[in-house]
Amino acid sequence: MAAVIDELSRSFGQVICVDDGSTDHSAAEVAKTSARLIRHSRNRGQGAALQTGIDAALKAEEVKYIVTFDADGQHGAADAERMVRFMKEHAGVDIALGSRFLGGGEAKDIGRLKRLVLRLAVVFSNLTTGLTLTDTHNGLRVLSRGCAAQLHLRSARMAHASEIIYKIARNKWTYRELPVTILYTDYSKAHGQSVWNSFGILAETLKHKALKSWRA
């Protein structure tokens, strides 16, 4: 984790790391870096952690773009930099979405079952939102300040990725997918989302859609 933060710090002026009620040494490791550490007193889920980080970033008036970036080493700072440059050059785009399946993207050492589940998630998302995406559960994104201020994630846990796609469609935000590389290491596989969690995400997504709880 410290290596990920150090790499990002060389490219970005402000790095915010949200410790979501961890019980290991994560917070102490982050505290040794230049990142700003925000801690949840209990585990609230990735969606809640993401919203906490976004809210903190928006308090700085100079922040124009917000990058969401997983701490498990799957993403590359070079991809994040390139996506921010794209956003600066295309002022009309509200959100840039990283895609490991778009031409030029790559999913290194991804398992066959994981690839299949992610592909099925894309089909489901496109059918239910009307968008045409190639990757719907990629944690690497760049949001314009205006888009980030309107996001207001309601899904505290892993279904937040589906909620973001839903809100892009509902709010008619302009978006672009950009190719990125996702690296599946032993560490990221151990600390990231398991294949079987995907079925829980689907159930949570269907629940939110049925209750219309993402409309706010």
Question: What are the key terms here?
Answer:
9 helices; Spore Coat Polysaccharide Biosynthesis Protein SpsA, Chain A; alpha/beta; 216 residues; two-stranded parallel ribbon; 45% helix; globular; 4-stranded mixed sheet
Strand order of the largest sheet: 3-6-4-7
DSSP helix fraction: 40-55%
Strand content: 15-25%
Summarize the biggest pleated sheet: 4 strands, mixed
CATH architecture of the domain at 63-211: Alpha-Beta Complex
The secondary structure category is alpha/beta
* The top level CATH class name of the domain at 63-211: Alpha Beta
The gyration radius over C-alpha positions equals 16 Å
Distance between the termini: 34 Å
CATH topology-level fold name of the domain at 63-211: Spore Coat Polysaccharide Biosynthesis Protein SpsA, Chain A
What's the overall average pLDDT, rounded? 88
Shape: globular
Please provide the ordered H/E string of secondary-structure elements. HEHEHEHEEHEHHEEHH
Helix count, per DSSP?
9
Any idea what the CATH superfamily of the domain at 63-211 is called?
Answer: Spore Coat Polysaccharide Biosynthesis Protein SpsA, Chain A
Low-confidence stretches: none
The count of DSSP E runs of length 2 or more, i.e. the number of strands, is: 8
Produce the secondary structure layout.
Blueprint: H1 2-9, E1 16-20, H2 26-31, E2 36-40, H3 46-58, E3 65-68, H4 77-89, E4 95-99, E5 106-108, H5 112-129, E6 141-144, H6 145-151, H7 160-171, E7 175-179, E8 181-183, H8 186-191, H9 197-211
Parallel strand pairs: 1-2, 4-7, 5-8
Antiparallel strand pairs: 3-6, 4-6
